[in-house]
Structure formats: structure tokens, C-alpha cells
Design brief:
The protein is α+β, with helices and mostly antiparallel strands. The chain has a domain of 135 residues. It has 10 helices and 9 strands. The strands form 2 sheets. The protein has a 7-stranded antiparallel β-sheet, with helices on both faces. The chain has a two-stranded antiparallel sheet with strand order 7-8. It starts with a helix and ends in a 7-residue tail after the last helix.
């Protein structure tokens, strides 16, 4: 990985076990390790359900809303053999923790953003009895450390193209908020009251597919009747939650990469920071083809979390008419990963933000940041970003 990564300046160019990183051996402190300690002390107990196992109890322990549920039926993850249109994999997430559940699976999959080490992977056996504990599992890195994650341990969301037969090579690509919606969500269920055309919900095996590509289908408001819903907390795969997850996972990878570049003394630190800041400012986000409306309470649940400035504004407020967020600066600036960045990286990132929001850098790629938006973002940051994160 190190030799290949060094050929790309936009990816981390050293081993995850470089002496300045020591990803595999450095003690970590994050939401999972904190929960494990509480479980061991008996301060928290997980309840086992015959169908979903510890799922609901684990979501409650991490304060992850069930409204964040998104469902994928393409056969990905190391539980691929259990995943299908009739048994989709469910993903739930907060700013720093993601939980994957496959009905009938032996484990729950958990990915957590650690302030120092980026994304770390854990599993929880779906076995009743005893004191449950989450165990670190670096096998996930066989997929989750690649070009798609900027060569750091991370997460990604993919869209998968349909095939005419089993003999055709499966293909697709990674998506984030910069990809037009029409090209997203192949292999995913998508629900909403108003959803732009996409590849969501279509069959991945299409023997009669035209050369021009698959026919798109309208997104339902619910998946009731599409498959057996036993164990699923909801029969929704909310379009807004999916759009937000796509944005969030790449932001997390860029945060990790910027921090790691600084820790190894890389010459690519400035480039990594600039890329991170541009992404946090939603540079290159294409306009929505029309207004989007989800099918669950996720939009309200997420927006209610804050923090808010003295005028009541928040980086968690959605727009969903022409763009994803009302104030185009990512809420991931409040994340544990951003907070844990080396001081020089935070200083560089905040200085870069100031250059852009003040108008000192008037490059055309920032034209989406109108003067009123720049002022609003400056005021929101001044009120909501703790001082220690800007030093």
C-alpha cells in the first residue's frame, strides 16, 4: 500500500502502522470503548431480541436514531451471502458511529470515529447470554482501506450498476455529495415523499436491459410489502438520511487523512487541508434537480441536534430545494475527528476557512457562497465552534 499510495498525492502515502500512527496498536478512546467499559461495570445492559439481536439496544446505547436507517441489497460486506432484496442490510448512523445489521447474521458491525486514529471497526456477536462486548476487528480493512478512503481506514458508499447476466463483471463507483443524484443508489432501497430520478430500488439483474441503461423507477414512500419486515425498526430507507451519509463518510476520510499527513511530517499536509476545507464547504455539489423530501422524521431529528448560534441558526439545517444543507459548511466540523486533529492542522483549516468566508479567496469555485451565506457561516462558527478547536 505504501509504495502504491506514494504515487498519488491525494491519498495517504505511508503505512497505517507508521511509527507516528501505529493504527493497530495505539490505545484508543471513543464511543465504543466507552460503551464497553460501561457494559463491563454493569452500568449499561444490552437487551437481546430473537430476530434483531442486540440491534435496538445498541442503537439506544449510542443514541443513534432509527430514522437514520438506510437499506442496501447489493451483496457487499463480509456478510454478503446473507444480503438480498428480500433481506437487505440495514445501516444506522450518528456523526461518529455507524452500525450495520443483517437479519440472520452472526454479528453486528460497528464503525466508530476515533479522535486520534480515524475509523476503527468492531463487531458484536449476536449471541444471547453473558456480558456482551464489542471486539475490534481489523479484517474490515481488506475493503475499508483503499483509494476510495484516501488510503486511510474509512467508510464509503457505493452505487452498483445492474448486469444482464451473472457472467457480466459487477461494477459501480463510490459516491458522495458531488455526484449527481441520477447516478446514485444502485443497489439501495430509497424511500421518500419526493425523490429525484436515481438508480435506487431497481433490480441489479436485468437480462433485457437496453444499451442506454436501466429504466429508473419511482421511489416509494414505504417498503411495506416489498420484503419481510421482521426485525427492522422501520420499513423506510430515507432519501435524506442516505444523502447525508454519503456526505459524511467522505468528510470523515478527509479528516483522518489530513491529520495523519501532519503526524508523519508529509509535504502533502497543505493539500490535504485544502481538499478537506473545500469538501466541508460543499464545493462542486451539483444543484438538486428538484426539491427532495424524505419519508421519515429523520430530517427533523437530525436538525434538532444543534448546536445553534445566538440567532438560532445551525449547520444541521437542511435546504433540500437546490442543495443539501441550508448553510453549506459541514456539521462534521464538530466531530470527534476534527476535534482530535493536530493543532497545526486545525489552525491551517480555520485560517483557510477565514480566507474563503472573508472573500480574500475569490476563486470561482466558491461562487455558491454568496455574501449573505459567508456572513452567516462566519457568525455560526463564531458562536458554535469551541475556542480550542480553532487554535
Amino acid at each position: 500500500m505504501a509504495a502504491v499510495s506514494a504515487q498519488r498525492s491525494d491519498a495517504f502515502g505511508a503505512s497505517r502502522d507508521h511509527e507516528a500512527i501505529n493504527y493497530s496498536t495505539t490505545p484508543v478512546s471513543n464511543a465504543v470503548t466507552a460503551l464497553n467499559e460501561k457494559l463491563a461495570r454493569g452500568e449499561v445492559a444490552l437487551t437481546f431480541d430473537p430476530v434483531s439481536g442486540y440491534l435496538r439496544s445498541l442503537l439506544d446505547a449510542f443514541a443513534i436514531p432509527v430514522e437514520s436507517q438506510v437499506l442496501v441489497f447489493s451483496q457487499t460486506s463480509f456478510q454478503a451471502r446473507r444480503i438480498s432484496r428480500a433481506n437487505p442490510r440495514a445501516v444506522y448512523f450518528s456523526d461518529s458511529v455507524a452500525v450495520g445489521w443483517v437479519r440472520g447474521g452472526d454479528i453486528l458491525e460497528v464503525a466508530v470515529q476515533d479522535a486520534g486514529q480515524g475509523i476503527i471497526f468492531f463487531t458484536l456477536p449476536q449471541t444471547a447470554g453473558g456480558t456482551p462486548a464489542l471486539t475490534r476487528d481489523d479484517k474490515c480493512l481488506s475493503c475499508h482501506l483503499s483509494w476510495e478512503t484516501r488510503a486511510v481506514p474509512g467508510l464509503f458508499v457505493q452505487t452498483v450498476f445492474p448486469r444482464r447476466s451473472e457472467n457480466e463483471y459487477a461494477n459501480g463507483f463510490t459516491v458522495d455529495h458531488r455526484v449527481p443524484l441520477a447516478e446514485r443508489w444502485g443497489g439501495w432501497y430509497v424511500t421518500g415523499e419526493r425523490v429525484p430520478p436515481s438508480m435506487g430500488n431497481i433490480d441489479l439483474m436485468q437480462p433485457k436491459m437496453a444499451d442506454s441503461g436501466p429504466n429508473l423507477v419511482a421511489a416509494p414512500t414505504s417498503l411495506d410489502g416489498r420484503f419481510d419486515g421482521r426485525g427492522y425498526p422501520t420499513m423506510l430507507s430515507d432519501v435524506v438520511a442516505l444523502m447525508l451519509l454519503e456526505h459524511q463518510v467522505h468528510a470523515t476520510n478527509l479528516i483522518t487523512r489530513a491529520g495523519w499527513e501532519a503526524r508523519i511530517g508529509s509535504p502533502h499536509v497543505r493539500e490535504a487541508v485544502n481538499e478537506l476545507v473545500d469538501y466541508l464547504l460543499f464545493v462542486d455539489e451539483p444543484p438538486l434537480p428538484h426539491a427532495v423530501k424524505g419519508s421519515s422524521k429523520f430530517t427533523n431529528v437530525f436538525a434538532a441536534q444543534g448546536p445553534r448560534d445566538r440567532q438560532g441558526r445551525s449547520l444541521r439545517e437542511f435546504d433540500l430545494t437546490s442543495r443539501l444543507m441550508r448553510h453549506p459548511l459541514s456539521y462534521m466540523i464538530y466531530s470527534p475527528g476534527f476535534a482530535g486533529l493536530p493543532a497545526e492542522v486545525k489552525t491551517m483549516a480555520c485560517a483557510r476557512l477565514d480566507e474563503i468566508l472573508s472573500g480574500k479567496d475569490a476563486h470561482e469555485k466558491y461562487t455558491h457562497l454568496t455574501p449573505p451565506l459567508r456572513l452567516a457561516l462566519t457568525q455560526i462558527l463564531a458562536d458554535t465552534l469551541p475556542e480550542e478547536r480553532t487554535q
